[in-house]
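Researcher: I'd like a candidate sequence for this fold, 325 residues long. If you have to choose between options at a position, lean toward the conservative one.
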């Protein structure tokens, strides 16, 4: 919450990180594994202390019995100390280990890596006319990346799935193959990525429209794994379904499909509206007052929007900005 800073990466692309869904989830699952391991270690230490005390006490009793020539009592105490010693050896052999990452953690980590790969790709391709917003979360849901620049606003749903991706309406699935090309089976994606993106992008379009900026948000489904390939895509609710290796920004930003370019003041205004909306709903999710206003929240320090608001105060920005069907 509060002020979000924009940093320049690559050729000057401005990156604003609001949150990291996949990275935060992977880190949380990893921390839970470490905590479980530390708790097991603590329990093991307590058991070792208990049996060590029992062994030492039994040895003391055995020495005391021997001093009184109580051979039977000394033998019994010695046996008790040996049982405690064997228990100590067994506990040490069963030392705790950090369990392997779960499927959920591996998937979250793969998603985080996929998002970072797109950041690196865009940092090389785009200059300081463009702003990339990471981790937007509004009323409609989450958007992995929002790209804002002269040729429009684009929402990216990024996936780390490997294999050949197919879709048929609401059903999306992935075909997996081994190194020799033998099929390993198919996996159905639990949620259709285009449906996820359409809902949130639609909400974002409405929020911008209510603030005087009428444009269509381009929807891109991106599979970023090196061995991801696009198969048969039928009736996808997105402007583009592609892999990172095949992503063609020239085609995505085709000016002939988009009309007039967005002015820098409009791009900066859009970026700040996105940040403000994210900050508002973040406050709501954290239990802040329901009467909180989105006005003035979550400004981007690097963009210095205050001076631009003076330029646009009282002006209703009507941007006609379509996308190729």
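Model: Candidate sequence:
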């Amino acid at each position: 919450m509060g002020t979000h800073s924009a940093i320049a990466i690559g050729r000057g692309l401005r990156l604003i990180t609001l949150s990291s869904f996949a990275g935060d989830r992977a880190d949380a699952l990893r921390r839970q594994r470490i905590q479980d391991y530390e708790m097991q270690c603590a329990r093991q230490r307590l058991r070792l202390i208990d049996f060590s005390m029992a062994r030492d006490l039994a040895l003391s009793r055995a020495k005391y019995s021997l001093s009184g020539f109580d051979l039977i009592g000394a033998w019994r105490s010695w046996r008790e100390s040996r049982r405690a010693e064997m228990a100590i050896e067994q506990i040490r052999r069963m030392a705790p280990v950090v369990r392997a990452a779960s499927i959920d953690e591996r998937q979250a980590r793969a998603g985080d890596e996929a998002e970072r790969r797109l950041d690196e790709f865009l940092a090389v391709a785009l200059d300081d006319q463009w702003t990339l917003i990471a981790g937007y979360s509004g009323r409609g849901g989450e958007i992995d990346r929002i790209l804002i620049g002269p040729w429009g606003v684009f929402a990216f749903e990024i996936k780390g799935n490997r294999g050949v991706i197919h879709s048929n309406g609401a059903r999306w699935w992935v075909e997996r193959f081994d190194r020799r090309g033998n099929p390993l089976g198919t996996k159905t994606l639990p949620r259709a990525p285009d449906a996820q993106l359409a809902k949130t992008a639609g909400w974002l379009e409405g929020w911008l429209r209510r603030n005087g900026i009428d444009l269509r948000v381009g929807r891109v489904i991106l599979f970023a794994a090196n061995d991801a390939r696009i198969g048969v895509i039928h009736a996808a609710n997105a402007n583009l379904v592609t892999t990172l290796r095949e992503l063609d920004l020239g085609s995505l930003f085709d000016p002939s499909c988009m009309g007039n370019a967005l002015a820098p003041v409009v791009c900066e205004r859009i970026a700040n509206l996105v940040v403000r909306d994210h900050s508002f709903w973040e406050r709501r999710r954290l239990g802040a007052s329901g009467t909180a206003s989105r006005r003035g929240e979550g400004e981007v320090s690097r963009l210095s929007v205050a001076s631009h608001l003076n330029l646009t105060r009282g002006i209703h920005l009507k941007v006609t900005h379509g996308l190729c069907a």
